[in-house]
Design a protein that fits this description.
Layout: H1 2-6, E1 9-14, H2 16-19, H3 28-43, E2 47-52, H4 55-63, H5 72-95, E3 101-106, H6 108-111, H7 118-129, E4 133-138, H8 153-163, E5 167-172, E6 193-194, H9 199-203, H10 217-230, E7 233-238, H11 244-249, E8 256-258
Parallel strand pairs: 1-2, 1-5, 2-4, 3-4, 5-7, 6-8
Antiparallel strand pairs: 7-8
Helix pairs in contact: 4-5, 8-10
C-alpha cells in the first residue's frame, strides 16, 4: 500500500449509484460527506481529478422519471438537464471548503487511440496549477454512441493515463472484486490484490446493468487493464462509507488494489 499512501496525482471516479438514491434523486448525505473528505485530501497536498457519472440519473430524478428512456435523444436531453444540476451541486459544496471546480466534458473521438491528446493534457495541467478540481464526464448530450466509455470506468482510466496519474480510485457500491457475486454466493471472498489480469480474474466479473447506471465489474476490469498498460495503480473501493477514503490513504487494506508498481 506504500504507493497508494504516497500517491499525489489522483483520479477519483464516482458512479451514479454513489451519487443518487434508487429514486434518481441526489444522495445528499453521501455526496456532502464525499466532498468534505476529497476537499480534506486536497488540503493535504494531493492533486484531485473527479470523473463523475450521474448526469442521466440526476436528470431522471429532476423530472420525476423512474425508468431510463430507450431513445438516445431522450437520454441526451436528460444528460443535459442532469449535468447542470451536478455541476451546480459540486460547485456549491466544494466552494464551502474554498475549492474551485471546472467542468470537462469528453467524448471518445478526442481521447481515442488516434487522437491528439496534448491539448487535453495541457488543460488538465493548467487547471491543477490553478489549484482547481477538474470534474470530468462523458459528453452524453452530444455523443452519438451511447456510453462509449462504459459508465465512465474506462473514461476514468483513460483520463488517468492522459494526465499521468499515480492512482485511480473507483468508488462503487461494492467493496472490491470478489471471487464470485457476493450478493448470490455468501462464500465469495474479496480479492485484496490483483497483480495480473488473468482469465480467472475476468471470470469473477459480470456485466450487470441497473436502471440508473451501466457497467458492472467487467468495466472496472477493463479500467484495470488500462492501468497496467499505463503504469498507475488502481483501487476499487466501496462508496457506502466515504471515510474509507481516509483509511485507504492511511495505508489500510481496503477494497481491491490493482498493484501495478
Amino acid at each position: 500500500m506504500e504507493n497508494v499512501v504516497k500517491a499525489k496525482k489522483i483520479v477519483i471516479k464516482i458512479g451514479t449509484s454513489t451519487l443518487t438514491h434508487k429514486t434518481g434523486n441526489i444522495n445528499i448525505r453521501r455526496v456532502e460527506h464525499l466532498v468534505k473528505i476529497i476537499s480534506d485530501l486536497k488540503n493535504s497536498g494531493k492533486e484531485i481529478v473527479l470523473v463523475s457519472s450521474g448526469a442521466v440519473g440526476v436528470g431522471m430524478g429532476k423530472l420525476g422519471l423512474d425508468k431510463k428512456p430507450k431513445t438516445i435523444s431522450k437520454r441526451q436531453a436528460l444528460a443535459a438537464i442532469g449535468q447542470c444540476e451536478l455541476m451546480y451541486l459540486y460547485d456549491k459544496l466544494f466552494g464551502e471548503y474554498n475549492h474551485n471546480v471546472a467542468q470537462v466534458l469528453l467524448t471518445n473521438d478526442v481521447v481515442g487511440e488516434n487522437a491528439d491528446i496534448s491539448n487535453i493534457y495541457n488543460t488538465f495541467e493548467q487547471l491543477l496549477k490553478y489549484n482547481v478540481i477538474p470534474i470530468v464526464n462523458e459528453n452524453d448530450t452530444v455523443s452519438t454512441e451511447e456510453l462509449e466509455f462504459g459508465d465512465n470506468d474506462t473514461l476514468s482510466a483513460v483520463v488517468s493515463s492522459i494526465i499521468g496519474a499515480d492512482l485511480l480510485v473507483i468508488l462503487t457500491d461494492i467493496d472490491g472484486l470478489y471471487t464470485d457475486n457476493p450478493k448470490k454466493n455468501k462464500n465469495a471472498k474479496r480479492i485484496e490484490v490483483v497483480e495480473e489480469i488473468t482469465d480467472e480474474i475476468i471470470d469473477c466479473c459480470g456485466g450487470a446493468v441497473n436502471n440508473l447506471g451501466t457497467g458492472g465489474m467487467i468495466t472496472k476490469i477493463k479500467a484495470g487493464q488500462i492501468a497496467f498498460e499505463n503504469n498507475f495503480d488502481m483501487v476499487i473501493l466501496s462508496s457506502k462509507n466515504p471515510d474509507d477514503l481516509y483509511s485507504l490513504f492511511d495505508g489500510e487494506n481496503k477494497g481491491t488494489l490493482f498493484k501495478v508498481r
